[in-house]
Amino acid sequence: MKHYYFSDNNQQLGPFTLDELKVKRLKKSTLVWTDGLQDWTTADT
Question: What is the DSSP letter of 22?
């Protein structure tokens, strides 16, 4: 199972499952990361 993290006010939060992440009120510009990504990316991608 993949775990996801996101950044809020320069604070890393997580790990979350994809279902847990989907219920968070993330902005399109929120930075997210999961294993396999080379770097943090915006939530809209």
Answer: H
